[in-house]
Amino acid sequence: MSFELASRGSKNARRQIKGRNAVDAKEIAALADRIVEGRRSKTTMDWLADATASLSEADAYKVQFAVHDKLEAAGWKLAGWKVAFAVPAQYEPLKLSGPAFAGLYTSGIKQSGVVFEKGWPLKAGVECEMVARMGKDVPAGTEYTAQSIMAFVSNLYCGMEVVENRYGDVSKLGGPGRIVDDVLQAACVVGTEIKDWQKTDFVNVKGRSEFEGKEIGAGPGSNVMGGAMISLAWLANRLIANGKQLKAGDMILTGSVHPPQFLPGPGVAKTEFVGLGGAEITVK
Known about the structure:
Layout: H1 6-14, H2 25-41, H3 48-51, H4 57-73, E1 78-84, H5 88-91, E2 100-105, E3 109-111, E4 114-116, E5 124-134, H6 146-149, E6 153-164, H7 175-180, E7 185-193, E8 206-211, E9 214-220, H8 228-241, E10 251-256, E11 261-262, E12 267-273, E13 277-283
Parallel strand pairs: 1-10, 3-7, 4-13
Antiparallel strand pairs: 1-2, 5-6, 5-10, 5-11, 6-7, 8-9, 8-12, 12-13
Helix pairs in contact: 1-8, 2-4
């Protein structure tokens, strides 16, 4: 399946789930306020599943953007974006029309080797992803493809997304409920820089994650919408469709080769793209 063109993504996004109710600006602001309070206080938001049970996919993004605005007003700064639910097996059970996107913050951009002290993330999980640094703004006016988006990338890294379960029972949280709160995002860990990254076999490269030396997840690059540059082009197109854009300096988590793997406790977790490098964290 190809996700390269914005027109396809935007059409999918308009196909909302029957029975989902539209919400007004006041309700969007109120829900965003509750989420912001939960994020800033690092407390479990076990109420979010019920609060978003009837929320549409389109309104979920309105809430997400409101959360971004409120967190930035409180001193947080957006540092980029992430691609989530890269394959149908991930987004279809959540009743979403396709993959999703969410924001990253400067406080969550970490270098490989970072140590997370006890207390945050609330319950950590890891995903094996490539991280792109944008070298130029990506303007509106065209539909980007895997080939054309490459000209806007300055660097590509082996990396890791750290997600957190800040909801109690995350299995109760639907797709819109995940979108409103940046799809479990906690940190973007930047690992080995990939030299001559344009020559990477994005389809066949193998990514894997391990915890305390034991493999916990793996998959080919093709699991990311067919390849990391395809997912990056999809993200560029979807942001433009929502009145936003990728900007120079943005850090982008391009999507995981495997579903999130939650860690059983403290220890060392690693991700690797075989033959290219990896990233490592320690959770206390």
